[in-house]
């Protein structure tokens, strides 16, 4: 009896881990590169967790010199075409003044699946209504994967809206106004055209480069196990940052377990 229970547990565990997949994410925990998103979609709709460190000089925030950010992100694929992402931007040097930090909920919608000659297409949307939407960004991005004799390339290009929709100070939930990002606290994240390329010469790692609509950034990534990825990168070759990410699928199917149970019958 103990042997049978052990075999069932082992089959379930192997089925779970065989369904995990490596995937690059940006510092907000979404499929992407360093700061920029891609149109990549995790087909097994995993529950994703990530942590990112951003230095003060390249923080999204611009008020003062205490803007080192610790990003805590959670991502979940509700359907095959929609993901939701929650991000918390914790600034440890300002925690006594601002508490936990800025929070943002946003969505990704897959408009097109990648075809042989056509790229995947994803729309990113931040629901309006915040009084201070510093992290808000709306964008459209296309991504194409190319497999060659020297490795796999992932190429993306997109456009980020230069506007932000915010709730007026003291106004009701639907009392909104549209501002240019540059006029709202000097925010410039994902404003205009952006793009990125990643290169995987081996199955468990590679390198990437991006233009985040303001600067060029480069980095490397490794996946010591299929469900975990470590990314290290540099902003303009001046400051270093990193991201740790893990993906856990919720729709895995324990085929090995069912096969074992059939043999018992």
UniProtKB/TrEMBL annotation:
<dbReference type="Pfam" id="PF06082">
    <property type="entry name" value="YjbH"/>
</dbReference>
<protein>
    <submittedName>
        <fullName>YjbH domain-containing protein</fullName>
    </submittedName>
</protein>
<feature type="signal peptide">
    <location>
        <begin position="1"/>
        <end position="23"/>
    </location>
</feature>
<dbReference type="InterPro" id="IPR010344">
    <property type="entry name" value="YbjH"/>
</dbReference>
<keyword id="KW-0732">Signal</keyword>
